[in-house]
Amino acid sequence: MADVLLKERTEEGILILTLNRPEAMNCFNFELLAALSDTIREANFDNELRCIIITGAVGKDPKKSSFSTGADLKERRTLSDDQVRRFIFTIRNTFTAVEQVRVPVIAAINGYAFGGGTELALASDIRIASSNAVMGLTETSLAIIPGGGGTQRLPRIVGIAKAKELIFTARRIDAQTALRIGLVNSVVEPEELMPAALEMAREIAKNGPIGVAQAKFAINYGMEASLGVALPLESKAYEVTIPTKDRLEALAAFAEKRKPVFRNQ
Fold first, then answer.
1. Per-residue confidence of the chain (265 residues) as pLDDT tens digits?
2. Is 71 tagged catalytic?
3. Is 161 in the active site?
4. Is 115 among the residues known to form the active site?
5. What is the DSSP secondary-structure string of 29-83?
6. Long-range contacts of 175-182 (CB under 8 A, 24+ apart)
7. In order of start, what are the domains of the chain with their CATH numbers?
């Protein structure tokens, strides 16, 4: 049986994760969530890792490509109420792990991203969408609500009024609408999606990994605090970078007019 999560590593320290259930439009079952959760957990201890890209496998018909259409409803129909609770607990914690992993995460949204697919994109740091992408938190059309963080992350990204509109109506929006409301960072043609994601990842990977990690930490946790708490948090994150070898290497490289060689130290 094919792996439900494909992994590819570049020499720059970029990890490409491909949700690999194209026959099911890359929707999430317990197996895929477990594979993603395990990989993200291990990423926190990989000192050579600089960035993660998450995308979806393309099936036999590229025109019907999918990032992920959310929960596997065929599996859901077989679950007891208790098992559904366990699934929601699992998907929420997995996406929170994606949000909190040490390195930046780029979602390369290639096609349909509904429910948990959009929620995974929301948990990522940067979202690049193919021009044929269609996104939406469609759970209320199934008489439920987003359970993978959508009700909390979407308002923080697009604003509370627009988030309520999208969630209450279960509306599906195209890539250009997603760009206009700030849901995605950029939109590119389908054939340019992975090159664009890799270009962004390489821009990140060339910078000091400790600095990038601390910047992510300061932004993520500072956004949840008052400015009076967030600014001291930023100062503490900065202090972590001061005694590092990478900071000294950056200064030496600047003086010597060469590119720095960072070692995450």
1. 469 999 999 999 999 999 999 999 999 999 999 999 999 999 999 999 999 999 999 987 777 789 999 999 889 889 999 999 999 999 999 999 999 999 999 999 999 999 999 999 999 999 999 999 999 999 999 999 999 999 999 999 999 999 999 999 999 999 999 999 999 999 999 999 999 999 999 999 999 999 999 999 999 999 999 999 999 999 999 999 999 999 999 999 999 999 999 999 9
2. yes
3. no
4. no
5. -HHHHHHHHHHHHHHTT-TT--EEEEEE---S-GGG-EEE-SB-HHHHTT--HHH
6. 175/109, 175/129, 175/130, 175/131, 175/132, 175/133, 175/134, 175/135, 176/131, 178/129, 178/133, 178/135, 179/129, 182/157, 182/158
7. 5-205 (3.90.226.10), 209-256 (1.10.12.10)
**d(Cα 29, Cα 39) in Å, to the nearest integer?**
16
Determine which one of 57, 70, 111, 119 is catalytic.
119
Residue of 116, 117, 149, 208 marked catalytic: 116
- For residue 208, indicate whether it is catalytic: no
Catalytic residue among 71, 201, 205, 218: 71
